[in-house]
Fold:
Amino acid sequence: MAGFSAAVVGLGYWGPNILRNVIEIDGFDSVYGCDFNESMLEKNKKKFPSMKIAKDYDDILKNKEIECVFICTPPATHYELAKKALDHNKNVMIEKPLTVDIQEAEDLIRLSEKRSLKLMVGHTFEFSPAVNKIKEIIDSRLLGDIYFILMTRINLGIHRRDVSVIWDLATHDFSILFRLIDEIPERISAVSNSFVKKGLKDVAFINMKYRSGIIANINVSWLSPKKVRETIIVGSKKMLVYDDTDNDEKIKVFDKGVDVLKDPGSFGEYQLTYRTGDIYSPVLEATEPLNAEIRHFLDCVKNGGSPITDGYSGLRVVKAVNAAEESSEKDGEVVTIK
Ligand SMILES: NC(=O)c1ccc[n+]([C@@H]2O[C@H](COP(=O)([O-])OP(=O)(O)OC[C@H]3O[C@@H](n4cnc5c(N)ncnc54)[C@H](O)[C@@H]3O)[C@@H](O)[C@H]2O)c1
Structure:
């Protein structure tokens, strides 16, 4: 009987995390590691002795037992590797971003649908208990109407050599934002600069406006004295802070706000009262997002259903990043997300 195996392609910085989880979930007969850099293969073989070695990607493609391919190579290579895998009848999970080009993302979606194969993008935060809890809080209307969202993802490094900080870090925030708010911002405007290496943007400030009136802002940078991974959501009833660096209280809901009271004494006049109440921090499940993400992919492959972070989820992030890049090339000109 044919086996049911997986391959993890690209064992640089991020790939070993995927490999570890693919091995840990114990859903595959064999797990292959593939990298054209032999030292990466050797290093990972020592760490994960059960990993089978594939030096050449063609060996993965030709191996009919391999039904799932996890692509963890640099973003510019995602399209070619994924297209080949789909052409060889394999289900594909691609690390974020799905691709760097909109047409390429659309092409992968078309191809996966034509062949009835699963295509999923590794938007890890969409599997995070904190992000899912925030979604639950927003949907329950505990915060009231959402006014605005501020997202900050800054630290010193790690500078990528191949893509800007927008592609590297803002992909996370766009994916979180699109998961939280069931609406895509209409207009986007971004400014950025390349301070350390010419041509490689290392800081960006991105502003968005939604048709519903919500406004959002994403700040990303590889240049900061402090690591900040924070989202602030301000609603008409309550406010929420999500600090991903806080292991005990990642989410805090503040009963803070401002109430507008009509002054009965004078026509048309109003008074503002500021409300400062309790702070509440919900308990979160202790699951590793990456593990949940890979289990979900396997479940979709084995039992059917569309991945939460399917090709379309990947495509909307690719479109948003392209719009932010375009705006920042035009010094902040407003761009519409197509
Ligand atoms: N989800 C997350 O939080 C997260 C974090 C970091 C990186 N990533 C993503 O993971 C991907 C990889 O990033 P990284 O930082 O690990 O990059 P990296 O450069 O450290 O590693 C990439 C590896 O891929 C190998 N490779 C490249 N092309 C190949 C090919 N055609 N065949 C076989 N091997 C090949 C390289 O030899 C290298 O070892 C990127 O898409 C990145 O955006 C995701």
About this structure: The radius of gyration is 22 Å. The pocket of nicotinamide-adenine-dinucleotide is lined by residues 9-15, 34-37, 40, 57, 72-75, 77, 81, 95-96, 122, 124 (CB under 6 Å). The chain has nine helices and 15 strands.
